[in-house]
Amino acid sequence: ILSIGFSGADLGRAAVIAFVTAMLLSKRRTIWFAGLVALLIDRVFWPAAEQAIAGADFRIVATSIAAIGATFLDDLGLYMVRYLGIVAMISVFVAVRWRIHKPFVIKEKKT
């Protein structure tokens, strides 16, 4: 899933977004919701921020966001694969976080 949905340049960005999203995930939210938020950041906010930092005019940034909306149905398969890949990465990071923060339980011996 990761190799189909992400190219080499996108994988690092997706891993950073998945890591941060997994660290901010609360117990009230599911991994699926966190994946949706991470996908929104990955496909809308991050590219717009990159263009703004590069000095693009507001109209160019707004046009690129509108283009994402216009081609949404055409790119739906890609979004689904990227969503599943981000959810997989978030679940790995959540599992690692859980293992690190899991208290060590000492079993008492019955005598």
Q: Label the overall shape.
A: elongated
- How many runs of DSSP E, i.e. beta strands? 0
Q: Spell out the helices and strands N to C.
A: HHHHH
Rounded Rg: 18 Å
Low-confidence stretches: none
Q: Averaged pLDDT, please?
A: 84
Structure description:
The structure is a single chain. This protein is mostly helical. The chain contains five helices and no strands. It is elongated, with a radius of gyration of 18 Å. The mean pLDDT is 84.
What features would you highlight for this structure?
about 110 residues, mainly alpha
In short:
The protein has 111 residues and is mainly alpha-helical.
Write the layout of secondary structure elements.
Layout: H1 2-5, H2 8-24, H3 31-53, H4 58-70, H5 76-101
